[in-house]
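Posting for a labmate who doesn't have an account.
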Amino acid sequence: MKLIGKFVDKNGTGYVNLRPEDDEDMWHLYNIIQQGDLVRAPAIRRIQSVSATGSTESHRVKLNLTIQVSRVEFSSSGAPSSSADQTSSPAGSSSAAPTTTSALHISGPVASENRHVKMGAFHTLDIESNRDIRIEKVDGWDSVALARVEEACVPGRGAEVGAVVCGEGTAAFCLLSQHMTLVTHRISVPIPRKASAPGTSQYEKAMAKFYAILYEAFVRHIPYTSPSLRAIVFASPGWVREGVFNAMITEAGRRGDKTLTKALREKTVKVHVSSAHVHSLVEVLKSPEIVAQLKETKFAREGIVLDKFFKMLGVDEMRAWYGPDHVRLAADRGAIGTLLISDELFRSSNLDSASDPKLRKAYVELVEGVQQKGAEVVMFSSMHESGQQLNQLTGIAAILTFPLDVEVVEAEEREVREEERRQQETETLDGGGVG
């Protein structure tokens, strides 16, 4: 993401001009833009005009429109699948970085004068890469939104891990960046059961076909020449990953692809996982090999912290709290050491309660409050497996610095409320007596 222009005063009033460049930038915009914001971006509008003779003509006009956001929709790129019947690409295919295929649609009434479009007319902006977009927040920019803009504009980003999660005859190709996990491709090849003498040859032929298709898919969908790619992961149950890696090395050597051979030897990490499903990426990110190599990346940090929370929940549940109400109680007592919170709670959507500005403001104040007390805040991306797991726990959790009994704390809160109620009744009676 490029920061084209920014003016935000100390009260949070102002605007930001951004230029998205890839899928992750679209995801950042989806998390930055809220209902009620004023968004200005290029648009194409069909205009009808009436000639002097009374005939109606219709033509398209390119213009910049400003709308007041009422709905934001994001769709990530789909992962096409290959079967054994599909034709493989020619030998010697080179690695290509995936193109921007995520879509961001912003809808709402037109909020500024335009000679082609009436004020209040409904329009949907289709945000495109390398096209500038201006965002102005009517209620002001809060600290979470500004931090997201700064994070999105850090140069040199891109996919940091290319992963192939495979089983016998199946493989999913994934790219992991700071905020997104994209499944770029899937393949499936029927593999007969490995049997004694007569069936073995059929099994070996099927596996050879699987390796060939996997190789072609790898060079197409994993950008192994990219400087930002820090690791290539082969993950599988059993020993499938060993066979896949050896087949990749052998084929790259046969084709004389020195670049791929070097990348495989220098960047490959082989990890055992419990299943050949994409959800196994959570296990990948917790593996010691990946932790050691990627400990400074955001998504690895998410996996480590979530694993620490679940372990704490198992051994000392009084130091592992989750749910908005309980986490707020822990924050009020200054007990939070690490706050785990999903970006979904800050996002505008017609389908969930995050569209309530008051609720977003409450979460922002919670984050700012625990940060001021010295706690660590880990913002989870719901486009990563770890973020989706946190969302299943209400999207917010905390690791406490000292144990607190939930029942005792709730009892204390009830006593405080009861005391406040009695004081109010007393003041009411005293006021009535004076009258």
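Reply:
Got it, the structure tokens are right above this. Residues 406-434 form the longest helix (29 residues).
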